[in-house]
Amino acid sequence: MSNKKGRLFVISGPSGVGKTTLIRLFLKEDRLSTFSVSYTTRNKRSHEVHGRDYYFVDSEVFNSMVERDEFLEWQEVYGYKYGTPRKNVLDVLEQGLDIFLDIDVNGALHVKNQCPCACLIFIEPPAKEELQRRLSMRGEREIPKRIKVADKEIEKKHAFEYTIVNKELTEAYEEFKGIIESVRRQAHGKNNC
Ligand code: 5GP
């Protein structure tokens, strides 16, 4: 049996920038990786599936998981709590598979502190107007709040190893794939965290 561990990819960037789309596209064609499903206290959107997009839980369940130290990281984002279940991530890495986290910037920096060899990729919008357009197309409420947070997140992009400007999806996806392949080559033969 191989003792090679998987790699941890952390994808962050403003809400509506296309992180989830890029990750889903990649996972569709890649058999060596999986997605970390977070826990959240926010309400489920109509198209979302419990256990696929998130585990939707109430504050009581979330807080007891925090108390039991079951999160690799957790943050409050737009008034709701979001957390990455530690055991799931570690189990996947142990199996030698790569795992993708789609989390906010503060959560990403926290993961980097704990797992220095995690690869952090920041997805940036081409312009604020475009982000605004995408958020309203998605029917998102509280757009001004999300734009304000986006500004703060963009200020922290320098802490990330890679930045991709998602102007055009096909191009951004090629860049995304290229980064992952290159990281996989660099890390070949080395254990991750
Ligand atoms: P949304 O509510 O739009 O699905 O997500 C809001 C924000 O929370 C996004 O930036 C998303 O990446 C982030 N997020 C999702 N799951 C987690 C998590 O487990 N931890 C942290 N820190 N952020 C998360």
What report would you give on this structure?
There is one protein chain. The chain has helices spanning 19-29, 59-67, 86-94, 105-114, 128-137, 143-155, 169-186, and strands spanning 8-12, 33-35, 38-40, 54-56, 71-77, 80-85, 98-102, 119-124, 162-165. It has 193 residues and is α/β, with parallel strands linked by helices. It has a single domain, classed as P-loop containing nucleotide triphosphate hydrolases (Rossmann fold, 3-Layer(aba) Sandwich), CATH 3.40.50. Strands 2-7-1-8-9 form a 5-stranded parallel beta sheet, with helices on both faces. It has a 4-stranded mixed beta sheet with strand order 4-3-6-5. A hairpin with a 2-residue loop joins strand 5 and strand 6 (80-85). The longest helix has 18 residues, at 169-186. The radius of gyration is 16 Å and the shape is globular. Bound molecules: guanosine-5'-monophosphate (5GP).
List strands and helices in order, with pairings:
Blueprint: E1 8-12, H1 19-29, E2 33-35, E3 38-40, E4 54-56, H2 59-67, E5 71-77, E6 80-85, H3 86-94, E7 98-102, H4 105-114, E8 119-124, H5 128-137, H6 143-155, E9 162-165, H7 169-186
Parallel strand pairs: 1-7, 1-8, 2-7, 3-4, 8-9
Antiparallel strand pairs: 3-6, 5-6
Bound molecules: guanosine-5'-monophosphate.
**Strands, total number:** 9
Annotation field: number of helices: 7
In this entry the ligands are: guanosine-5'-monophosphate
Estimate the helix proportion, in percent: 40-55%
Major beta sheet summary: 5 strands, parallel
CATH-assigned homologous superfamily = P-loop containing nucleotide triphosphate hydrolases
- Secondary-structure arrangement, i.e. CATH architecture: 3-Layer(aba) Sandwich
CATH level 1 class label? Alpha Beta
Strand order of the largest sheet: 2-7-1-8-9
| Rg value | 16 Å
Category by helix and strand content: alpha/beta
Number of domains: 1
The string of secondary-structure elements, in order, is EHEEEHEEHEHEHHEH
Identify the overall geometry: globular
